[in-house]
Design goal:
The complex is a heterodimer of chains A (359) and B (370). Chain A is globular. The longest helix of chain A has 27 residues. Chain A has one domain: Orthogonal Bundle (ABC transporter involved in vitamin B12 uptake, BtuC), CATH 1.10.3470. Helices cover 71% and strands 0% of the residues of chain A. With 359 residues, chain A is mostly helical. With 370 residues, chain B is of the alpha/beta class. In chain B, the strands form 2 sheets. Chain B has a 7-stranded mixed beta sheet, sandwiched between helices. In chain B, strands 8-7-9-10-11-13 form a 6-stranded mixed beta sheet, with helices on both faces. In chain B, strand 7, helix 7 and strand 8 form a beta-alpha-beta unit. In chain B, helix 2 packs parallel to helix 12 and helix 6 packs parallel to helix 7. The termini of chain B are far apart. The chains are: A mainly alpha (359), B alpha/beta (370).
């Protein structure tokens, strides 16, 4: 029985590939959990992008929005736990009052920052790339500075939301147990991300709001002639999308870790934009792309922790870590170049809408 | 087209943000001294609750006592090391403290170019060629102490601290499988901690299995400055290797490892400082920390320079001069410490002080995949 795989592994080059497949299969359970976790903030950033761009507003300020939300969520948690005490966490997800207040504050800030972007982009008709860049630079600078002010006291935060623990019997199910375990072993933000992806996919393509959003993004003038208020719709979408980016930020500081760090988003907002493009501006596609990008992290983590034996291990040991980090961008460039199908942005994406003046 | 443009702009924005984060803040000093002390930290932040912060604290304490001016620069990434050191040189600083092994080459180069300025390189054993330039081949043919008489490399015997942490880890482990995660395997200080940890664990329980992993093989931010990545990586490490104690040797990325240990319901061991005090969110699962007294070492060295008693070369800190040790065993976790643990720690520490306990293998500071 064992003879065949060994013979396959001994083949030059192709054998290495077989070894890699075998290695991935045997470590799939561990990798998938990392993959799903890493994909959460990328997915939320991508969904934020989808909501904005489908209605015709480019938002590259997602990174900054996430960072602002991560900081405010954490600092409000710190303040609230100092004021009201941390209290006893609920058995489900370890929810406490300070955590909930922090999460609410994070979402609010995400929406406020996005409102700023909406005002600049839609009303002031500023170049939307510039507006997003302002948000990114501003958020990094302001949160970094404020963090330096408070961090020297090493304040205790509100902690973090706890993971759902998949029951042992379910996790041990043959064939599917590892997958269920990987998908469900998450905190409330991670779990709701999956729900949001499905909901947004249905709403964007099956609801009145979705149709109007797509119309505003493809041909706003036509949308306006049938009575859709394009300006208002864009405002609403951009502000709502801020809540999604904020969830991504809150995940960083309140679910995955329990503290803030300067620049803790570390480019996740930008990778989210790449996931949006690779996923062709659809929620499900973006989620898939985020999972694809995150699986590079899962695989590279596994290779670091327990490298495969033999030639494959030697070869993988020589792959620099930067390769895995660059992979999402390389995939994005390949997709944009049209190598794997075409990815086309909404037609009116990034173009400020000018109402026809009544003459 | 717009899509391609967008990526270009995104990358541009990322670069701009990274640049915008290189910051510096000045603390004014009482007049009376013309001494100016500049601190260049490693990437991350000056409030990282570990290395950068405590080096700066030490320099600040010395500056306050001396009435000197002190200023700190936090490089945005490795390419800013030389630039940030040079800015202190240009501003006529008398003492420049650089924090961490990664700044070693930049510090040596600056010390060679500016023989009148004192340089204090934390965690660096200056390795120079016969001309006094940094030697990347590690032949170290030149004598740094005579070629660069105003460069002091502060070195700790981290293996001693790691050894003590290893004893604690082996004592609280029930499975007999424990783990350690370091930043990058090129940093001798990090490696010494981990080599000491292995020996210490084995001294308590000869059958212990110590699993080792590295956060990165080159990216400094990932290795030492990204707790979110640290958490996901360590969660997978704990599951994949089945360890029940994790020793982190990776700055703030490693704090993510402590979070992962807490979430997984196992024990964590902190590094460099007493993380029970500096990283309270891991208190419920932290048993101890392998400590080095960075703050006191920098303070003493800077004070010695100001008092004109300092000499160039390597300045060693170890158990004998209380330069390294372990943090008090935490009472906050559910762990019950074996009754023989404290005795074994005391014996080991005493043996280290008298110099009779080997805590590092022959290739101390060089990782060869043990």
């Amino acid at each position: 029985m064992n003879g065949i795989p060994q013979a396959l592994d001994a083949l030059p080059i192709l054998g290495m590939l077989f070894q890699l497949v075998g290695y991935v299969l045997s470590n799939l359970g561990y990798m998938s959990q990392t993959t799903v976790a890493v994909a959460v903030p990328i997915t939320l950033a991508a969904l934020c992008g989808v909501m904005c761009e489908r209605s015709g507003v480019v938002n590259i300020g997602i990174e900054g929005t996430m960072l602002a939300a991560a900081f405010i969520g954490w600092i409000v948690g710190v303040a609230a736990s100092a004021l009201f005490g941390v209290g006893t966490p609920l058995p489900l997800f370890g929810v406490t009052l300070p955590l909930l207040l922090g999460l609410a504050a994070a979402i609010l800030v995400g929406m406020v920052v996005s409102l700023l972007h909406a005002w600049l982009a839609i009303s002031m008709k500023v170049d939307q790339i510039i507006s997003g860049t302002i948000i990114n630079i501003g958020a990094a600078g302001i949160t970094g500075y404020l963090y330096t002010l408070v961090a020297s006291q090493a304040p205790t935060g509100a902690g973090s939301f706890a993971q759902y623990k998949v029951p042992g019997q379910v996790a041990d199910l043959p064939l599917v147990g590892w997958l269920i375990n990987a998908v469900l072993s998450q905190g409330p933000i991670g779990l709701s991300t999956i729900v949001i992806v499905i909901m947004l996919q249905i709403m964007l393509f099956r609801s009145r709001w979705g149709l109007r959003t797509r119309a505003a993004g493809e041909h706003p003038r036509a949308a306006e002639t049938v009575g859709i208020d394009v300006i208002r719709l864009r405002y609403r979408n951009v502000v709502m999308s801020g809540a999604l980016a904020a969830l991504g930020g809150a995940w960083l500081s309140m679910e995955q870790t329990n503290g803030f760090n300067a620049d803790m988003t570390a480019g996740r907002g930008f990778i989210g934009l790449a996931a949006m493009i690779v996923g062709r501006w659809t929620p499900l596609g973006a989620f898939g792309a985020a999972l694809l990008f995150a699986s590079a992290t899962g695989l590279s983590t596994s290779l670091q922790i327990s490298p495969p034996a033999g030639d494959l291990g030697q070869l993988m040991g020589h792959v620099p870590g930067e390769f895995w980090e660059a992979l999402p961008y390389i995939i994005t460039i390949v997709v944009l170049a049209g190598v794997i199908g075409r990815s086309i942005a909404p037609a009116a994406d990034g173009k400020p809408y000018e109402r026809e003046s009544a003459t | 087209m717009t899509g391609k443009l967008r990526i270009a702009f995104s990358l541009l924005a990322a670069v701009v943000i990274a640049g915008a984060c290189s910051s510096s803040g000045a603390t004014s000093a009482p007049s009376g001294s013309s001494l100016k002390i500049g601190v260049v930290t490693d990437v991350g932040s000056v409030t990282d609750h570990t290395f950068n912060e405590y080096s700066y604290e030490g320099a600040k304490a010395a500056a306050t006592a001396l009435g000197a001016t002190i200023n700190v620069a936090v490089p945005a990434d490795a390419s800013d090391y030389s630039k940030d050191i040079q800015s202190f040189v240009d501003d006529k600083y008398n003492i420049i403290v650089t924090v961490g092994f990664n700044l070693g080459d930049a510090t040596i180069t600056a010390a060679k170019a500016n023989p009148n300025i004192w340089f204090v390189a934390v965690d660096v054993a200056p390795c120079v060629d016969p001309t006094g330039a940094p030697d990347d081949t590690f032949a170290c043919a030149g004598d740094a102490a005579t070629l660069l008489p105003k460069l002091i490399g502060i070195q700790f015997e981290e293996d001693q601290a790691g050894y003590l942490a290893g004893i604690v880890a082996a004592a609280v482990s029930t499975s007999g499988v424990i783990g350690q995660i370091g930043g990058i395997d090129n940093n001798p200080a990090v490696v010494r901690y981990m080599q000491g940890f292995q020996l210490g664990a084995a001294s308590y329980n000869p059958n212990i299995q110590v699993k080792t992993a590295w956060f990165s093989n080159g990216d400094l931010t990932k290795a030492y400055g990204d707790p979110v990545f640290g958490k996901t990586f360590s969660t997978q490490f704990i599951a994949q290797q089945g360890v029940d104690v994790v020793f982190q040797v990776a700055g703030s990325t490693g704090n993510g490892a402590l979070d992962a240990a807490c979430a997984a319901g196992i024990y964590g061991i902190g590094v460099d400082v007493d993380e029970y005090l500096t990283y309270p969110s891991a208190d419920r699962c932290l048993v101890t920390s392998a400590e080095k007294n960075v703050s006191a070492a920098v303070n003493q060295t800077v004070t010695a320079i100001a008092g004109k008693t300092a000499k160039g070369g390597i300045s060693k800190f170890n158990a004998a001069n209380n330069g390294v040790g372990y943090a008090p065993l935490s009472e906050n976790t559910l762990v019950t410490y074996p009754s023989d643990l404290q005795g074994k720690l005391d014996t080991a520490l005493a043996a280290m002080k008298s110099g009779t306990l080997p805590t590092c293998p022959a290739q101390c500071g060089t990782w060869s995949g043990q």
